[in-house]
Design brief:
Radius of gyration of chain A: 23 Å
Helix content of chain B: 25-40%
Order of helices and strands of chain A: HHHHHHHEHEEHHHHEHHHH
Strand content of chain A: under 5%
Largest interface: A-B, 52 and 55 residues
CATH class of chain B: Alpha Beta
Distance between the termini of chain B: 29 Å
Number of domains of chain B: 1
Oligomer: heterodimer
CATH topology of chain B: Rossmann fold
CATH architecture of chain B: 3-Layer(aba) Sandwich
Strand order of the largest sheet of chain A: 1-4
Largest sheet of chain A: 2 strands, antiparallel
Helix content of chain A: over 70%
Number of domains of chain A: 1
Order of helices and strands of chain B: EEEHEEHEHEEHHEHEHEEH
CATH class of chain A: Mainly Alpha
Radius of gyration of chain B: 19 Å
Structural class of chain B: alpha/beta
Structural class of chain A: mainly alpha
Distance between the termini of chain A: 54 Å
CATH architecture of chain A: Orthogonal Bundle
CATH topology of chain A: ABC transporter involved in vitamin B12 uptake, BtuC
Number of helices of chain B: 8
Strand content of chain B: 25-35%
Strand order of the largest sheet of chain B: 6-9-10-3-11-12
Shape of chain B: globular
Chain lengths: ~350, ~260
């Protein structure tokens, strides 16, 4: 399967390219799943797989948004804190009697607003995304704590908890939502002008600007999109456990960013895969699940997770460095090797080159 | 049109630059420069480093608006405050870095900023990858070029292939005048020759070209006329058929017009 992907990259349609990119990772996931089942058959039950998909659902949703951010050569460290802020505020309103539908709308409005704020600071005030979102991470966590320090909210109307706990045709609603978010995200990323512009500004901001891409506006939109996906992820989390508190989503950005990086999206920007991010999130959820079933201590689980992320980044870097080498290799081939070899001699220097 | 461009003077004036000036602090990088470019003409811009060639070209590309003077395209005066203005006026610019996005593939680069769209379910706009791909193949085949790997990121293409992609971008914009800054620099002999052919093909389609080059051999092979700059001033424009390399070198070095 993997060799198949390597032997024909780029052949076929432009929009089918993303399919090939995720195949290596998909193979790894399948191989690991088989290994886990061999070690412990309990891992292989359908109930457990549905459990893994459900566990991964909100990470998948946020990883789809993060794919756009990282592909645009940005980063968003504030997603965990944003989840806390958005959920405690919306929870308060809903508990206070606000129509649940309006409460959910409020969550998306908050997410979009926070994204607009972050995006504007990055695009117009030119604060690097790492610093901007580090600041937002601290500020939003602080605001969530101010809003409901130490309080634990619970008791949502069933219309809201359905989003996290409902089952539709045997499939949990959060799984359906995350799948829909992934399909929408992949379409947006690969098939729309916005997606192309995001990949363009991440690949070469100046070239994109010269080509007429409204780089600042696209950058703001990227963070607004991230905010909307963060709100959706927060909604699923909150509805699933029917509660929230100011400390919810702590260190969540690490999981989300890890899923995206494992999925092959370049930390340098310009290149990304929504499908890969979904697979990355699944891989992380599957590893966690397997470690829990194997009875591995929680502290060791963290060590394993960290190790996976480091290995993924190392592989990603190797892949990055392979591209210039490939370009150099290609440069010799098409110009007719035999013809260009002797031409590299003195003939080239003859051209009367001035200083 | 012959290689010498003998009919150039009879052709229409595409670009008319009058008294263009640009200063950086006390330094006059471009000092009262006036010249014209005719339809289907290749004008080479030569001069030592710091002679003002790049500043002049940046003004034409809209990347650095001049302090004074006039730029007329087809007889109409234009204020070029951005690359977009220049593009709308019919001036395309081929930068040294080519302005390509390395991580995007060939059709995506060609159409970036001017994407072709189709409608999903009749209403939702989405990229028309197929149409962009077909138009790209069409544009490239107009130059007798077929790139084998249109779907690869352009970073995997050779220098000459990248030039072709960048030029295809310009042709798509329906430009009247293309400004090229050292297009043959850092290319092998074979690749450089292909770019020379590309430039000639553009000229034969009636596009005017201003080309900066340090390579006088290329200049004499390509240009109909040669404009020589020194210390920000245009010290002479000569017909390449009526001059010699030594004379041009003398003008570049000593500024003495003969």
């Amino acid at each position: 399967m993997t060799s198949n992907a390597n032997s024909e990259p780029g052949i076929g349609h432009a929009d089918r390219r993303w399919l090939f990119e995720g195949i290596g990772l998909t193979a790894v996931i399948l191989a690991l799943a088989i290994l886990f089942i061999l070690i412990n058959p309990r891992f292989g039950t359908i109930a457990n797989f549905i459990n893994i998909l459900t566990q991964a659902s909100f990470i998948i949703v946020m990883a789809v948004g993060m794919t756009f951010v990282i592909t645009s050569a940005g980063i968003d460290l504030s997603v965990g804190s944003a989840v806390a802020f958005i959920t405690v505020v919306a929870f308060g309103f809903i508990k206070g009697g606000l129509n649940p539908l309006l409460g959910v709308a409020l969550m998306f409005a908050l997410g979009a607003f926070l994204g607009f704020l972050t995006g504007s600071l990055v695009a117009y005030v030119k604060i690097p995304p790492f610093i901007t979102t580090l600041g937002m991470m601290a500020a939003l966590r602080g605001l969530a704590l101010v809003h409901s320090a130490g309080e634990m909210h619970f008791g949502l109307p069933t219309s809201v908890t359905y989003v996290g706990q409902g089952v539709l045709g045997g499939v949990p609603v959060p799984v359906i939502i995350s799948l829909a978010a992934a399909v929408f995200g992949a379409w947006l990323f690969n098939r729309t002008r916005f997606g192309l512009h995001v990949r363009a500004i991440g690949g070469n901001r100046e070239a994109a600007r010269l080509a007429g891409v409204p780089v600042n506006r696209v950058e703001v939109m990227v963070y607004v999109l991230m905010g909307l996906f963060t709100a959706l992820g927060g909604l699923i989390m909150m509805a699933r456990i029917d509660s929230t508190q100011a400390t919810i989503g702590t260190a969540m950005e690490i999981h989300v960013i890890s899923a995206v990086i494992i999925g092959g999206t370049s930390l340098f920007g310009g290149r990304g895969s929504v499908y890969g991010s979904v697979m990355g999130a699944l891989l992380l959820a599957m590893m966690t699940n397997a470690l829990i079933i194997a009875g591995v201590d929680f502290f060791w689980q963290l060590v394993v997770m960290g190790g996976i992320v480091l290995i993924a980044v190392a592989i990603s870097n190797l892949r990055e460095q392979r591209i210039p080498a490939l370009a150099q290799f290609m440069r010799r081939e098409p110009s007719g090797g035999a013809e260009s070899e002797p031409a590299r001699g003195p003939a080239q220097k003859q051209g009367g080159t001035l200083s | 049109m012959t290689h010498e461009g003998s009919g150039a003077l009879a052709a229409a004036k595409v670009l008319n630059v009058v008294g263009l000036t640009k200063s950086y602090g006390g330094l006059k990088a471009v000092d009262d420069v006036s010249f014209e470019v005719f339809e289907g003409e290749i004008l080479a811009l030569v001069g030592d480093n710091g002679a003002g060639k790049s500043t002049l070209v940046k003004a034409l590309a809209g990347a650095q608006p001049p302090d004074g003077g006039r730029i007329e395209i087809n007889g109409v005066s234009h204020q070029l405050n951005s690359p977009r203005d220049a593009g709308e006026a019919g001036i395309g610019c081929l930068h040294q870095g080519l302005g390509l996005v390395d991580t995007l593939n060939v059709p995506e680069n060609v159409f970036l900023g001017r994407e072709l769209l189709t409608r999903l379910l009749l209403v939702i706009p989405q990229l028309d990858h197929r149409q962009m791909r077909e138009r790209t193949i069409e544009l490239l085949s107009g130059f007798g070029i077929s790139l084998p790997r249109l779907n690869d990121p352009v970073i995997r293409l050779s220098g000459g292939q990248r030039q072709t992609v960048a030029i295809s971008r310009l042709l798509l914009q329906d430009v009247r005048l293309v400004v090229m800054d050292e297009p043959m620099a850092a290319l092998g002999v074979e690749e450089g020759r292909r770019v020379l052919d590309l430039v000639r093909t553009m000229r034969d389609r009636g596009i005017s070209i201003i080309i900066i080059s340090h390579n006088l051999e290329h200049v004499f092979q390509l240009a109909d006329r040669i404009a020589i700059m020194k210390n920000g001033r245009l010290i002479g424009v000569v017909r390449s058929a009526a001059t010699t390399r030594d004379e041009v070198v003398r003008m570049i070095t000593f500024g003495a017009a003969t």
